[in-house]
Amino acid sequence: LLAALLVLATPAATLLLGIFLQRELVEAPAAAGEGWQLFLAALAQGLLQHHLYGSFLCPLLALATYPCWLLLWNVLCWN
């Protein structure tokens, strides 16, 4: 149960669930394939914006802190 909660708390899963929730709230539910395409489009749009604005610091910091973030949740969930 804790492992499932840990996976659901990751940024990727949060973004994917947020996309499905947003589509549900605007009363235009997305199928699994459409939700996945919207998820990939959101990731690509974020990378494109960082490339256009010349700000590579944020993605690099995110890549560096993501493993630390997972370790923190690992320590908190599994004493």
From TrEMBL:
Keyword annotations from UniProtKB, A to Z: Membrane, Transmembrane, Transmembrane helix
One Gene Ontology cellular component: GPI-anchor transamidase complex
Pfam families the record matches: Gaa1
GO biological process: attachment of GPI anchor to protein
Tree of life domain: Eukaryota
Transmembrane segments: 52-76
Alphabetized PANTHER family for the sequence: GLYCOSYLPHOSPHATIDYLINOSITOL ANCHOR ATTACHMENT 1 PROTEIN (PTHR13304)
Protein name: GPAA1 protein
